[in-house]
Write a structure and sequence with these properties.
Layout lengths: L28 H26 L3 H29 L4 H27 L3 H24 L4 H23 L5 H20 L8 H33 L3 H23 L3 H4 L3 H32 L7 H23 L7 H16 L6 H27 L2
Length: 393
Amino acid sequence: MSQSTNVFTAWYRPMVARRAGEEHRAASTLELFFDLCFVVAVAQASSAFEHELVSGRPGRGLLGYALVFFAIWWAWMNFTWFASAYDTDDVPYRLLTLVQIIGVLVMAAGTSEALEHGDFAVITWGYVVMRLAMVSQWVRAACTDRERRRSALRYAVGILVLQVAWLVRLAVPVAGGTITFIVLAVMELAVPVWAERAEGTTWHPQHIAERYGLFTLIVLGESLMAAGLAVGAASETHQRLGSILPVALGGLLTVFALWWMYFAQDAPQRLRTQRTAMLWGYGHYVVFASAAAVGAALAVNVAHVTGGRALTDVQAAAVYTVPVALFITCVWLLHRRATRVSAAGNVLQPAAAVVVLSLTFTPFPVLGTGVVASLLIAGSVVLARREEEETGS
């Protein structure tokens, strides 16, 4: 589909499916701007999670973080896959995307209240604004893409009904708020499964892989920023640099290794069928949430070694080692069948995840995690090189 920048044709373009094999497909500037606004939401969620941990409420903080991050991730994911199929870059498309950005900012404003006090009113309204704009996009697609009209209408109807349900959840004070949230979240996840059965929408493997890679950079960057701020604040008010430096070094090694690990994968090779693509896309909830949690956990451990003892040593270590192990395991599960690897290469990542979890009970869990993650990357590079030599590549 031609994406001419002619000002006259840009007022309106029929919303028909873009080709999955389109050449030179890359993220648009509008998509990059959209992602930039999500930085605010991720930062707010990470900061509120850190506050709960530092305050000695790891259980409540973890639950609230999981719920809040679901709203952030699902709103981003739905826009990303729709854009891969139907990005017309005309005026109506841009305006509806800007409406979604307003919803993102409202969500960001409500993350602290949702996570710290269980008040989901603001974040729900922001989410609904985003999703109703998405309904309008799907209605546009249904009007012009006759081949996939049933799928587009299913998306529009499913999303619309669920937004009413989210608002009803706010209006009717009932017990079991977490349970109703989980039920509605599962129904949100079911909408694409139901809609795609009618007639699968098109999506571009390289474009999707790039978009997910960009969001991975956002959450890893948030981890670096949170860690840097925590180390800076601690070094200004404490003289215990000997305790801070191992944590800071371990955090840097960990984030560097997580970046290397994720982008060493051949994601487009994995995205071959609708089923695998859906599993891959859904699985990234754990990848994104755990990567963003690393920064908050690192800040907590900096506070812990400089006198903030709201958590026990094991709790402080666990809030760091668990998300790192989850990231390693999930990346391995999402990509282990994409390329042919040796038996040793296939067991390396899960073994590293187990070792990282065991570091929870050691005196230097953050530094140890950074070292193990670095050794994992080194081992992966050596094994990849050896396999290339054996196959004559």
